[in-house]
Design brief:
The complex is a heterodimer of chains A (486) and B (484).
Chain A (H helix, E strand, L loop, with lengths): L27 E10 L6 E3 L3 H9 L6 H15 L7 H11 L5 E5 L5 E3 L3 E7 L7 H4 L1 H5 L2 H24 L10 E3 L8 H11 L9 H11 L13 H5 L6 H11 L4 E5 L5 H12 L1 H9 L3 E5 L5 H16 L2 E2 L5 E2 L4 E5 L5 H13 L7 E5 L1 H4 L9 E10 L2 E4 L17 E6 L2 E6 L11 E5 L2 E2 L5 H8 L8 H13 L1
Parallel strand pairs in A: 6-12, 7-8, 8-11, 11-12
Antiparallel strand pairs in A: 1-5, 1-13, 2-4, 3-5, 3-17, 9-10, 13-14, 15-16, 17-18
Helix pairs in contact in A: 2-3, 6-7, 6-14, 7-8, 11-13, 13-14
Chain B lengths: L27 E10 L6 E3 L3 H9 L6 H15 L7 H11 L5 E5 L5 E3 L3 E7 L7 H4 L1 H5 L2 H24 L10 E3 L8 H11 L11 H8 L15 H5 L6 H11 L4 E5 L5 H12 L1 H9 L3 E5 L5 H16 L2 E2 L5 E2 L4 E5 L5 H13 L7 E5 L1 H4 L9 E10 L2 E4 L18 E5 L2 E5 L12 E5 L2 E2 L5 H8 L8 H7 L4
Parallel strand pairs in B: 6-12, 7-8, 8-11, 11-12
Antiparallel strand pairs in B: 1-5, 1-13, 2-4, 3-5, 3-17, 9-10, 13-14, 15-16, 17-18
Helix pairs in contact in B: 6-7, 6-14, 7-8, 11-13, 13-14
Classes of the chains: A alpha+beta (486), B alpha+beta (484).
């Protein structure tokens, strides 16, 4: 086990950025850039993950002479020419700043829910000799699109679950563990698993992505951010052989006689397994477990989710009986639940819950799990995340900088040095000039190699919790579905 | 400077896997699992990336006492119970194997191009006391889906460009330069960018994702670099000059790198005006001069519908610089000026752009491409339906076939028994149930009991991947394929 692949901060960047130091106008002393979500699937974003990037890559003395030498050699080969790599600029940073980066980053506090098309963080160089540095770290800083987008996608699902639990359950107690992260294997790398898994835990507490727990300990001061339960998988069931599936599930119940366990039940025939195995052959063991305060979560894992879930509930309801809660919806006994971990996304979770409701079942009967859809099926365009230069100082004069391509007005960028205001519950992005700096929600988080803010997961969760001013998520789903049909 | 967030082997598995050693039948002494693509978007896969996973996480004495202690504390807290963590099992690996993993992994050689629904690698426990190890590492081994899927995704881009190059261009040497990886910022992490960036370099030589090179140097014996780039502008370097000064922005860029190749982004305000007035007007002389010195300028639109934008841009440049007709009857711009389209290029839009310019008489050699998220991030484990399943086990001395066959989804049926990968009448096929001929098995033992037995070089990977997949017709794929 060794460190990361990249041990050189100069390589954390799109190659072409090495050529930019010679392209800005002569006399440029400051380049000021900002980051936003230009719109996208969801109308707001949960800001999260910048602190990891700052702590892991940019904090402290991060540039050394050895790195400069290594980067110089690599880039000479990479460009096939020696006049691109900015050896002088990097040497200056080592000699003048001891290898610390003369940058200032101001950001909205992590966990804040901000409507799209608002500035989320700004970056400016603090030493006029190295204006190119602002844009140099665009590549790395833009990767915050990922934890931000995962956290947002996860929170939208939390809103949906909240909606159905409010309507069909006595209380909201099941909410924090109602969507479990199964995405460790389906994500593109262990590092991404850690980041994405952590982003989900801003909203929920259930995870199998262990990497996320370690990540949150290391970068966000949380000792244990999530929980899991013993659970079977297909290999542990099918190894017993088709004729001994009952023994497989019995073994699971006996190996972990207390507490909650889950057992995947679709290896061969989910209906028979629910009816005959769980409903009859293992009924005694399940009842015994229930008397001890434990529970069994039965997991289908294939087929059309809305149909499969309701059919399983019906079979189990017939076998174990149901009660009706204060909202008039059926509940399985407290020791029995269904967990649906296949095919879950923000689009499908609502459909499943709606089908359950239509069939008289409380949302509290089912827990959900999501893998690829939670951690991998998102990209920078999901929330159209972009980092653009908006202001520069050239020959001592401040100029607003922007792009405005006629070929795509969606790509217009903001101008000037920006602030984020929150007035009467509404966020707006304004120019700093002419506005009271005290109203600016953006907070300096990094300056000249020093981390200025150190957020804990606890405060982030507090900021990100659901609240009455949230968008109407059912309305959002309706419009989203209509857009897809166009 | 950098230590990976995860530095404990035991924390590489999904939480629930810590509970599985108790879930197998008593008397289980061996577990044998395999990994395949069960189908998906592409009818074949380019196998790549397992060696990185083995070297980074699993080779050598990877388990330490400190890890066992830390993991015990973490797992007990995650489950809020202390009867899940398999302290005995992990200690056994420490004491009997010096912290090396008692596993045997066989895999198809990296770079191999083969049809889907074939076994790609198998994993088997070698110590009867700890058979659960096979499936414990499913999580991290399954992450091979990513480099494999990006390598295949990238390979298909190459098939498309090669197809149009064959039809409309005289210059086939350029194909491997014609798709740039611009995905660094759009990847979900630096590690992902490195893995995906490396996978793309199997097929192409153009890349701005610098991270791919250190990965290949460290894990695949690459000497030097495998990807190359050119001095290029971005919107910040152009727009910093101000709207009225755009020509000066391009002139300054051009003068700063007055030899060789440069790329200039042209759509900050009005891409067509920029091409007509700046590049075919005020800066025409400097472009011609660069050309005389053997250099080239790539002009980059970056917004709008790629199909229309590329064609219109070619027409403007054709008027400005003139064209020649090549041996295949298609128009080419002079060699020192090209279009570079790196916005919204998926397989589908690439096809649309190339087909459209062909229809209008332009050679594909006039346009170079780039892709970011479409290359490195818009893929997932379901793209190639990658899965890892136990197919055979030994329980109480008996060898048993293990498989799932859910009535609710026949696509999820898994293979049975011990598997071999063999040639059969010119096709590659997987033989199940131990019926194959081990002497003909294309799977090679790459890892055994902590030792890496095969150490592929990047050169070998590239050589294998340069072969075209048999029975694959790019036109058919494009017309019938499941396009996004």
């Amino acid at each position: 086990m060794e460190g990361g692949i990249l041990q050189n901060v100069i390589l954390l960047v799109d190659s072409y950025k090495n050529s930019h130091h010679r392209q800005y106008p002569t006399g440029t002393s400051y380049i000021y850039s900002y980051f936003e979500s230009r719109g996208g699937k969801f109308p707001y974003t949960v800001f999260f993950g910048l602190q990891y990037i700052l702590k892991r890559w940019l904090q402290g003395p991060v540039v050394t002479k050895e790195m400069i030498q290594e980067a110089k050699e690599l880039h000479a080969q990479h460009f096939g020419r020696n006049d691109v790599f900015n050896e002088e600029g990097w040497n200056y940073i080592v000699e003048r700043h001891g290898g610390k980066l003369p940058l200032k980053v101001c950001a909205v506090p992590e966990g804040t829910i901000v409507p799209t098309k608002n500035v989320l963080f700004t970056v400016v160089n603090t030493d006029p000799m190295v204006p190119w540095l602002t844009s140099f770290f665009e590549t790395l800083l833009v990767q915050v699109w990922y934890p931000m987008t995962v956290a947002t996608n996860s929170r939208i699902q939390k809103q949906i679950l909240h909606h159905y639990l409010s309507k069909t359950n006595d209380d909201l107690d099941p909410l924090p563990r109602s969507l479990h992260d199964y995405g460790y294997r389906g994500v593109s790398s262990v590092e991404s698993a850690a980041i994405g898994g952590a982003a989900h835990l801003v909203n929920f507490e259930g995870t199998d992505t262990l990497a996320a727990l370690v990540f949150l300990r290391k970068y966000y001061h949380c000792n244990m951010a999530g929980y899991s339960i013993p659970a079977s998988e297909h290999s542990t069931v099918t190894i017993w052989g088709r004729d001994r599936e009952t023994d497989a599930h019995r073994n699971m119940l006996e190996a972990f006689p207390d507490g909650i366990i889950a057992s995947v039940s679709d290896s061969y025939n989910i209906w028979d397994t629910c009816e005959k195995i769980w409903g009859e052959e293992l009924r005694e063991l399940v009842l015994k477990r229930g008397k001890n305060g434990g529970a069994v979560y039965i997991r289908p894992d294939s087929g059309d989710p809305p149909t499969v879930v309701v059919k399983c509930l019906n079979i189990l309801g017939d076998a174990y009986g149901t009660t009706v809660n204060s909202k008039g919806y059926k509940m399985l006994p407290p020791y029995l639940r269904v967990v649906q971990g296949d095919g879950i996304s923000y689009k499908t979770i609502g459909k499943i819950l709606e089908n359950m409701k239509t069939n008289g079942w409380s949302a509290a009967n089912v827990g959900f799990g999501s893998g690829g859809s939670l951690l991998q099926k998102v990209n920078r365009d999901t929330q159209k995340c972009a980092y653009k230069c908006s202001h520069a100082i050239i020959d001592g004069k401040g100029v607003d900088v922007y792009k405005q391509p006629i070929t795509d007005p969606g790509k217009d960028s903001k101008k000037g040095r920006l602030a984020l205001h929150l007035i009467n519950g509404t966020y707006t992005t304004v120019q700093q000039e002419g506005n009271d700096p005290k109203l600016d929600m953006l907070v300096p988080v990094f300056k000249d190699g020093e981390l200025l803010k150190d957020y804990t997961l606890q405060e982030i969760r507090e900021r990100a919790k659901l609240c009455s001013s949230d968008i109407n998520v059912m309305q959002f789903l309706k419009e989203d579905s209509a857009n897809q049909d166009e | 400077m950098d230590s990976h967030p995860i530095d404990n082997l035991i924390l590489l598995g999904d939480c629930y896997k810590s509970s599985h050693y108790k879930a197998y039948p008593p008397g289980t002494t061996n577990l044998y699992a395999y990994f395949e693509s069960r189908g998906g978007k592409f009818p074949y896969t380019v196998f790549f990336g397992l060696q990185y996973i083995l070297k980074k996480w699993l080779c050598g004495p990877v388990l330490t006492k400190a890890m066992v202690e830390e993991a015990k504390e973490v797992i007990n807290e995650v489950f809020n119970r202390d009867d899940v963590f398999n302290e005995e099992g992990w200690n056994h690996i420490l004491e009997h194997h010096g912290g090396r993993l008692p596993l045997r992994i066989k895999a198809v050689p990296e770079g191999t191009v083969l049809p889907t629904k074939n076994v790609l690698f198998t994993v088997e426990s070698t110590d009867p006391a700890v058979p659960w190890v096979t499936n414990f590492f499913e999580t991290v081994l399954v992450q091979a889906w990513y480099p494999m899927t990006v390598a295949t995704n990238s390979h298909i881009y190459k098939q498309i460009i090669q197809h149009y190059s064959n039809l409309t261009s005289d210059d086939h040497d350029m194909v491997e330069w014609m798709m740039l990886d611009a995905g660094y910022r759009g990847a979900s992490s630096v590690e992902t960018a490195a893995i995906g960036g490396a996978a793309h370099l199997i097929n192409f030589k153009s890349s701005d994702t610098m991270a791919g090179n250190p990965l290949l140097r460290k894990y695949y014996h690459l000497k030097g670099v495998a990807g190359f780039s050119t001095p290029s502008s971005d919107h910040s370097t152009v727009t910093a000059w101000g709207r009225d000064n755009e020509t000066n922005a391009h002139r300054h860029m051009s003068d700063s790198y007055d030899n060789g190749v440069v790329a200039c982004v042209c759509d900050s305000y009005d891409v067509f005006k920029c091409l007509e007035e700046t590049w075919c007007g005020e800066l025409k002389e400097s472009v011609l001069e660069r050309g005389r010195r053997g250099g080239r300028v790539y002009l980059r639109p970056d917004s709008g519908d790629p199909k229309e934008i590329v064609l219109k841009s070619l027409e403007i440049l054709g008027k400005g610089y003139g064209t020649e007709v090549n041996s295949k009857g298609y128009k080419t711009l002079p060699t020192f000026v090209r279009i570079f389209q790196a916005d919204r290029i998926t397989h589908n839009t690439l096809w649309e752009v190339l087909e459209n310019i062909k229809t209008h008489g332009w050679s594909s050699g006039n346009v170079f491409f780039g892709a970011g998220a479409a290359l490195l991030q818009q893929v997932n484990r379901d793209t190639q339906k990658c899965a890892y399943k136990v197919s055979s086990a030994e329980v109480n001395g008996k060898c048993v076939e293990v498989y799932k066959q859910p009535i609710t989804d026949t696509g999820k049926t898994s293979k049975k028994g011990r598997l071999t990968l063999q040639h059969d009448n010119g096709n590659i096929t997987t033989i199940q149930s131990g019926q194959g001929d081990p002497s003909k098995d294309l799977l090679v033992t790459v890892f055994e009991n902590g030792v890496l037995l095969k150490d592929y070089t990047f050169q070998e990977v590239q050589d294998r991947a340069s072969l075209s997949p048999s029975h694959f017709n790019i036109e058919e794929y494009l017309h019938n394929g499941d396009m996004e």
